[in-house]
Sequence to fold (587 residues):
Amino acid sequence: MSAIPAPAQSTPAFDRSPPAPSMLAGTLAIMKRELGGYFLTPVAYVFIVIFLFVTGVFTFQLGGFFEAGQANLRSFFTFHPWLYLFLVPAVSMRLWSEERKTGTIELLLTLPVSLGAAVIGKFLAAWAFTAIALVLTFPIWVTVNYLGKPDNGVIVAGYLGSLLMAGGFLAIGSAISAVTRNQVIAFVITVVVCFAFLLSGFPPVMGFLSGWAPQPILDAVASFSFLTRFDSISRGVIDLRDIIYFVSLIATFLFATVVIVDAKKAG
Amino acid sequence: MIEIKSLVKQFGTFTAVDGVSFSVKRGEVLGFLGPNGAGKSTTMKMITGYLTPTSGSAIVCGHDVSKDPLAVKQRIGYLPEGAPAYPDMTPESFLNFIASIRGLHGAARRSRIDEVVAHVHLEGVMRQSIDTLSKGYKRRVGLAQALLHDPDVLIMDEPTDGLDPNQKHEVRTLIHEMAARKAIVLSTHILEEVDAVCTRAIVIARGKIVADGTPEMLRAKSRYHHAVAITIRAANSNLVGAARGELQRLSHVMGVEDATLNDGHASFVVMTKSGASIVGDVSQLARSKGWEVDELRVEPGRLDEVFRTLTTTRSAGGAA
Fold:
């Protein structure tokens, strides 16, 4: 190796104070590391295999894909919210808990990147990871195209809605992961919170509120429901309001993550 | 290169750092001494921009860490306590990640990584996961990370903690080699380390600086400073008592301590009044009395004793 003995070297090989790396470069570097990190442990493979297996079971067994005799993927998408409820928190639980547990958070936050860039980078990595899992369900799309003539626009909308919903779950999970250094606690709380978001607008949540909460609050809570919004997107109805809803939900929870990580540094 | 002005950090009602001020120039190696929980780490975390000060300022290379944290973070190499690194990564991928965040690309990145890796001797383990590395290697990965961008300011929280004596020596040699070109701050509770690497030491207790000076200056605060240790042949304890009495009668002698008789050798530590030099008087006395002197030496002062005095004396008042 051509290792240069450095001790007495007085002229470093590069500029003494390089210009600050842009926010984008920092975000991308963190995203790349984080995404690579998923594949360094069995987590990624276990997740993807289970995701593909369970989507298969749900679509064909419970959803009656063949029995319905329709060339669409409704039976495939219907179960995504419920799958995500348990699988996405498993991805998001490590985002910040692990950094705090291993102490690397101190390293990460003393590197020349803003906290916002770190939060976004990590979130994007998790999101990209779920996107990879989602893309790997392509055989079902191939199948339905082989068997009939589906409306591929609706299917694309379904994938888009599914991805947005996964992003919403992940952003919630990111914020909760920042609260605790214990991944199991992060997982459980995320499942519960996501469940509430999923079902707001449906009997369990509405029944809990309807006795005492005023109507405007009931309406507001009902409008939070992932399920109704995802349902309309996966039907091919891309309403801008639904997209804005998911995007602003993600933005809100990422902002919450920044606030929580910042507040928790001292602990 | 580092200017700290009345830095304060409060956690709720607890004041971890209470008005700390100091400055560090290029070429200085500042040792941060203090018992656990004295505020060493908290101070370092504020300088490196991890924690936000409650009040006061930290200016690194002309940039205020509260106003322009990124500019400060770019110029600092920081080794946090315990040298954290992503356990699933290899040193190779880890250093590449740090390099990309630090804005090092292409040939500059490769040559810089090669240089640092050679410097801290990581060549053999570059493709092993950090998880599987020994403590010494993990520490080197942390050092490599901190040195990657050849920072002007290097801050290390207990860089040798938990290392074996050989590894400690290596880390200290490394610090020595870099000392002239950088401003270095390191924290430790190992006193020998101060002598081994530091040009200056700050003792901190309960969030406040209680001493600031060269290791020699600190030692001069010791009551053992200029004391004389003498060992003479002595057949029996009568002789020891007699010798002790003679020594005590010398002018400028405060008293005689640690008198021991061991295998026909009597040792004394002759304490001096107000730091006066008494070695001449002691040796003259020994000659005139015809003592067979095995050893005669002047105590430079004992750092551990100074450390204890500085960090405990005020606790009685403080705790009340």
Summary: The longest helix of chain A spans residues 152-179. The two ends of chain A are 44 Å apart (CA to CA).
